[in-house]
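Try this one yourself first.
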C-alpha cells in the first residue's frame, strides 16, 4: 500500500535537505519527496505537520536478537539493528532464525571472531545464540593466544562466514586482552582482502594497563594503516573512560591521515556485559580506578559488596549480565565527557543494545507492553532518543540534519562496500528503502533508567520499516514484523 506523509519537516542527510515537504512511499520504497505531492488513489494520507521526518536510525551495534528487544529499539527510532561487534555464528543459522521468528526491524550480523576462536580453542559448538556467546566470554581458556595452526583454522572459519553473507568481522579483543597482537593484524589483513569492515571492542589502553601487549586504540590505528582495512571502533565511550580525549586524538590523527577508521559512541556512563569478562576482574577494575562496587548484577540490582563477592559471582555465573559504572554521568565532568564524545567529528551513534533478560531465563517475549520483571541496560531503549535530547534539544550542539547524519546516514555508509543493500538506507532519496522515523521534536526523549531499563522512549510518532508501519501515533503495532535481512556480498 502507498502512504503519503503530509506536511512534515523532512530532513534528508543524503543531500542536506531540511524543508517542509511531503514524502510518498510506494511498495516499500521512497517514491517522491517534495511540496504538495498528490496522493495516489488508495494511498493512506498521514498528517505529520509539526513533526520531523527522517531516515530511520541504523544501529551498527545491537545485541538484541528478539522481537521484544527490537520493539524497544523501534520506540527509540531504530529501523535497522545490526550485531556487528560480537556477531553471531554460524551466520546462516542466525539469519534463518531471525527470518523464521520474524523481526520488527531490519537485521544483520558480522562473522563472530569470538565464536570462531571458541570453536577452535575450546571445541565449543556455536549455536547462533547470544547466551552461549556471553558464556564463552567468561571462560579463561578462550582468552589465550592461538597457535599458528589454530589461527589458520579460525581465520578460515571467518572467511567462510563472510562468504555466507556476514557484514564484516566482529572482534571482541577487549575480552582476550593479552592475546597476541599478530592475531589482530591477521584479522585486519583478511578483512582488507575480503573487502569487509571489522568492528572492534578494543583491548586495554596503555594508561590503564602499562603491560598491555599493545594500546587498544593504537592497535586499530596501526592495523588500519598497515592493511588498508575499514576498521570501526565500537563504543569509544565505554572503553576509553577518563582517557577519552587522548583516544579521540589518536583516532582523529589516523582519520586525518586517510585511514578508514570510524568511531562509535553511546550516551551512558555505565557499560554492560557478562560479569565474567576479562576487564571486570578485581585487578583490572583497580587499574581503571574502579572497584567491585561499580559492578551491579542486572537482574537483581545487587551491587558487588566486595572483591570476595565479585569473584564468587564470576566463578558461579560468568555469563550473568551486569552493569559496569565507567564514569559518573550525574557529575558535570562525566556529562561534559559524554557530550565531547558525541560531538567528535563524524562520531556514529550506536546503542550496544542488550537483550531483555527475564528472571526465568527467557530473553524473548511477544507481549507488548513487555511483561514485568525484564531487565536490560537503558541504552537498549534510549540511546538514540537520549542522544537527540542531549545534542539537539538541550544544547543545540547538533542540527536535526547533523543528528540524522550521525544516527542514520554515516552508519549505513560503513556498510556500502560490503553490503550493496546498505546504499538504500540512511537517506530519503527516490528509490531508497522506506525505513522512516517521524518524531515529535518537542517531546522526543528517553525514559529508561539504570533501575528500569525497559521503559520505552517517547516522541517517536511513526516508524516505518520497508514502508510498513511499526509505530503508529506513538503506539507500537504488535502485528508488524516487516524486518528484512541485510546481507554482505563477498566480492
Ligand atoms: Zn563491547
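Now uncover the answer:
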Amino acid at each position: 500500500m502507498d502512504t503519503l506523509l503530509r506536511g512534515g519537516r523532512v530532513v534528508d542527510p543524503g543531500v542536506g535537505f531540511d524543508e517542509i515537504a511531503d514524502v510518498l512511499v510506494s511498495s516499500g520504497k521512497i517514491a517522491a519527496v517534495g511540496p504538495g505531492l498528490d496522493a495516489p488513489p488508495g494511498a493512506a494520507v498521514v498528517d505529520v505537520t509539526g513533526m520531523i521526518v527522517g531516515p530511520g536510525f541504523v544501529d551498527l551495534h545491537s545485541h538484541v536478537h528478539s522481537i521484544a528487544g527490537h520493539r524497544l529499539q523501534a520506540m527509540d527510532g531504530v529501523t535497522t539493528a545490526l550485531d556487528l561487534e560480537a556477531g553471531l555464528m554460524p551466520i546462516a543459522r542466525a539469519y534463518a532464525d531471525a527470518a523464521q521468528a520474524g523481526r520488527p526491524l531490519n537485521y544483520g550480523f558480522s562473522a563472530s571472531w569470538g565464536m570462531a576462536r571458541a570453536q577452535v580453542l575450546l571445541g565449543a559448538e556455536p549455536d547462533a545464540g547470544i547466551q552461549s556467546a556471553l558464556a564463552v566470554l567468561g571462560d579463561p581458556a578462550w582468552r589465550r593466544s592461538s597457535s599458528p595452526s589454530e589461527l589458520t583454522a579460525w581465520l578460515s572459519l571467518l572467511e567462510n562466514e563472510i562468504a555466507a553473507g556476514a557484514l564484516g568481522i566482529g572482534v571482541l579483543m577487549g575480552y582476550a586482552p593479552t592475546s597476541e597482537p599478530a592475531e589482530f593484524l591477521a584479522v585486519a589483513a583478511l578483512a582488507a582482502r575480503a573487502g569487509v569492515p571489522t568492528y572492534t571492542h578494543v583491548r586495554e589502553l596503555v594508561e590503564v594497563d602499562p603491560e598491555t601487549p599493545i594500546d587498544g586504540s593504537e592497535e586499530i590505528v596501526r592495523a588500519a594503516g598497515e592493511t588498508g582495512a575499514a576498521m570501526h571502533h565500537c563504543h569509544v565511550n565505554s572503553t576509553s573512560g577518563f582517557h577519552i580525549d587522548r583516544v579521540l586524538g589518536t583516532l582523529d590523527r589516523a582519520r586525518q591521515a586517510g585511514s578508514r577508521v570510524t568511531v562509535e559512541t553511546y550516551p551512558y556512563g555505565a557499560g554492560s556485559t557478562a560479569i565474567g569478562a576479562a576487564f571486570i576482574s578485581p585487578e583490572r577494575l583497580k587499574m581503571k580506578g574502579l572497584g567491585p562496587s561499580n559492578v551491579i548484577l542486572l537482574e537483581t540490582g545487587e551491587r558487588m559488596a566486595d572483591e570476595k563477592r565479585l569473584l564468587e559471582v564470576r566463578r558461579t555465573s560468568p555469563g550473568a549480565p551486569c552493569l559496569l559504572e565507567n564514569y559518573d554521568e550525574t557529575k558535570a565532568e562525566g556529562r561534559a565527557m559524554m557530550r565531547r564524545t558525541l560531538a567528535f567529528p563524524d562520531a556514529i551513534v550506536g546503542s550496544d543494545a542488550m537483550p531483555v533478560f527475564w528472571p526465568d531465563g527467557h530473553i524473548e517475549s511477544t507481549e507488548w507492553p513487555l511483561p514485568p520483571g525484564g531487565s536490560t541496560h537503558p541504552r537498549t531503549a534510549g540511546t538514540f532518543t537520549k542522544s537527540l535530547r542531549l545534542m539537539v534539544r538541550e544544547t543545540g550542539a547538533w542540527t536535526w540534519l547533523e543528528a540524522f547524519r550521525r544516527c542514520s546516514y554515516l552508519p549505513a555508509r560503513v556498510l556500502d562496500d560490503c553490503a550493496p543493500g546498505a546504499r538504500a538506507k540512511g537517506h530519503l532519496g527516490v528509490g531508497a528503502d522506506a525505513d522512516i522515523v517521524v518524531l515529535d521534536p518537542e517531546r522526543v526523549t528517553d525514559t529508561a533508567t539504570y533501575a528500569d531499563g525497559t521503559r520505552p522512549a517517547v516522541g517517536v510518532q511513526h516508524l516505518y520499516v520497508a514502508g510498513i508501519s511499526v509505530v503508529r501515533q506513538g503506539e507500537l503495532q504488535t502485528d508488524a514484523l516487516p524486518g528484512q535481512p541485510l546481507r554482505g556480498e563477498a566480492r
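Discussion: The longest helix spans residues 148-163. The chain has a mean pLDDT of 97.
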